[in-house]
Amino acid sequence: MVDLSTRYLGLTLANPLVASASPLNGSPNTARAVEDAGAAALVLPSLFEEEIGDSTYAGVGNNYLDRLETIKSQASVPIIASVNAGSPGTWARYARWLTDAGADAIELNLYRVAADPSRSAADIEADDLETIAAVRSEVDLPLSVKLSPYYSALANFAARAVEAGADGLVLFNRFYQPDIDVETGAVVPRVELSQNWELRLPLRWLAILRPQLGANASLAATSGISSGADVVKALMVGADVAMMTSALLRHGPTHLHNVEGELRRWLHQHNYASLDEVRGSASQATAQDPTAFERANYLVELQSWAPHRR
Ligand SMILES: Cc1cc2nc3c(=O)[nH]c(=O)nc-3n(C[C@H](O)[C@H](O)[C@H](O)COP(=O)(O)O)c2cc1C
Questions:
Q1: Cα 295 from Cα 117, distance rounded (Å)
Q2: Is residue 310 part of a domain?
Q3: Model's pTM, two decimal places?
Q4: Is any atom of ligand 1 closer than 6 Å to the C-beta of 250?
Q5: What pLDDT is recorded for position 56?
Q6: Residue 193 contacts residue 246 (beta carbons within 8 Å)
Q7: Is 281 helix (H, G, I), strand (E, B) or coil?
Q8: 218 in contact with ligand 1, CB cutoff 6 A
Q9: What whole-number distance in Å separates Cα of residue 121 and Cα of residue 244?
Q10: Neighbour-count burial of 34, counting CB atoms closer than 10 A to its CB (0-12 exposed, 13-18 middle, 19+ buried)
Q11: Per-residue model confidence (pLDDT) at position 17
């Protein structure tokens, strides 16, 4: 029997399949279905900084705390509460209230669009680090930070996020991209479900960051994961867990059963007894061609699209 157990943020999980933040995990009924289908941990949808504000009483926030309490009381897997932050602020105290409501860990989702030309990358990163440190100082719980891929020096920022108090990094959040209605000129908000190829971006960065961060940080892969093979890839580049949302919204929570079955079969067929034997086997420190995660092969790939001469 293959041992699927894994450690994430200091928590022991029965398997590496985590249901990432989405409305599925925000209501007690669907959260239970996700757990029953095999998720080893659930991340609640984010409580947005804008919903909390600076007040000491926020109706929306309290509603979130109530749902967290209910979901936690019925769950036997760890429940991770999520806060979506765009700036440092007094809202960070909410992280403590999430602890009191029973969260097993906090995921801090750093989500911003760096559109202010007067603010440099260094200014923005300093704000983000201040936010991480503020939440860290509010809670003793494990703290993960969900990053976007849009930092200009991601490896440097990732290391500083860990220094500021993150126990783990979640790579990557997917910004919603607005569309335009050509008839009305209106900006149309669209949240599209992911496609499988979107896993490539976190794969690259997990492979690079795993050896750099070593045992100092847990790593979670999120974007484009929908099969056992995708989970294997995430493990190979060094992820501790593989998170899923789009696949569960598309196929329903029971899809987790299929993914777990595929993962078990792959491990069995390749004679692995545990995830530790696979983890990191294709990171930048161990891959046959470590440069493949950076610029290598790029030119060859581009040239392969040249039109063929007749
Ligand atoms: C409908 C929907 C709602 C989401 N809500 C949140 C959220 O509240 N907080 C968050 O950090 N991520 C949120 N996400 C992002 C997912 O947690 C996940 O990181 C992303 O969709 C990539 O994973 P996937 O390819 O498995 O969907 C949401 C995604 C979708 C599709």
A1: 29
A2: no
A3: 0.94
A4: no
A5: 59
A6: yes
A7: coil
A8: no
A9: 30
A10: buried
A11: 98
The parent domain of residue 283 ranges over 6-175+184-303
Both structure tokens of 297: 């092969």
Strands (E), the chain: 6-8, 11-13, 17-19, 41-48, 79-85, 105-110, 143-147, 168-171, 179-180, 187-188, 218-222, 241-244
- Give the number of domains in the chain: 1
Q: For position 75, which CATH number holds?
A: 3.20.20.70
Is 308 within a domain? no
pLDDT at position 131, please? 95
* pLDDT at site 303: 81
C-alpha to C-alpha distance for 276 and 281, rounded to whole angstroms: 9
Q: Residue 226: CB within 6 Å of ligand 1?
A: no
Predicted local distance difference test score (pLDDT) of residue 160: 98
- pLDDT by 10-residue block (mean), the chain, 310 residues: 95 98 96 98 91 64 90 97 87 89 96 93 96 95 97 97 98 89 92 94 97 94 98 98 98 98 97 95 83 78 75
Alpha carbon of 207 to ligand 1 centroid (Å): 22
